[in-house]
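Recall the central idea of this unit: under ordinary conditions, the amino acid sequence of a chain determines the structure it adopts. In this exercise we apply that idea directly, starting from the sequence alone.
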Amino acid sequence: MNNAKHGAALLLAIVGTIGTLGVSSSARAQSSVTIYGLLDQSVAYTSNANAAGDSIVKLPTLTGSFPSRLGFRGVEDLGGGLQAVFTLEAGLLMDTGGLSQGNRLFGRQASVGLKGDFGTVTIGRQVNMTFMAMLKSDVMGPNLFSISSIDPYIPNARSDNAVGYYGSFNNIVVGATYSTGRDSSSAGGPGATNCGGEVAGNAKACRQVTGLLGYETPAYGFNVAYDILYGNVGAANGLTSSDRSDKRLMLNGYVKAGAVKVGAGVMDRTTDAVTGLTESDLYFLGASYPLTPLLALDAQVARRDQKRSANDATLLVARLTYSLSKRTAVYAALGRMKNSGLSAVSLDAGGTVGAGLTQNGLMTGLRHAF
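Accordingly, the structure predicted from this sequence is:
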């Protein structure tokens, strides 16, 4: 039995077991287990998918409007305002039925922690502060056409072997994660970069530190975030020693005016890889507006400025979402990625484009939450 089949069988067994636990625990009131999920699949067309200028029609692997997942969330009341919490969340590939995040069973999250007036402390594989910093300012989120195409790390900002903290106090939010080995999967792709760390004699190998400080209200908010990850022998993206690093510094914000929400941000990135030092700035500005109670419009413009280089990329995207119910929606999106110089950033996350070519795209899909 291969890994994918073994993972699927194990996942089904866990669903049954946790479902049984959820029924028995909910009767005690002090504890509960919630099973939840999201199924989202699109069909996409993009132009200039290779150097010859050919187009392609496909069912994307990574995402539609949101990545698909199946999750289990639990809480137990320990008394005195203290709770034990856990999250197990599997990423699903709807086009093939496989597991995402490097074929991990619970690649999106696998953590346990304690929650109280002090905030929440968690241990395990978890989203880090880069992920949290983008939640309210990035109106497109992990859409197939989005800033996730420019920087694939953004929707995959998770850390293995991590201790995390997140708290909110009178609108001030603060958080941090520390990972002793940021990514143990070698399956490839942005969610699997072969840097397990935890090496005797080299505590810096595959270490990752993220931090967040912000101020959030229903009407407006902003945050600053920092993320640095180190490499080691065999790690992806040219971070082939613990002296190599990839650093991001972010400033993000949002404001609401009536029904309109506007989000914007800038991310400064410095990558010290074996291929050399590269620096870039990513700017984005977007807005969301409910045209009717059932129809919403999201739009965003973004630009990656590659410093001391002509290899820049500019994104334009708009998405319409029509809610068929509280849990089911259909959507369609138009996008355009303009590559300058030798830049080869594809419009669709995980896709391809000819170097220096402008790529246009159209996608439509269906989403159901449970």
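The chain has four helices and 18 strands.
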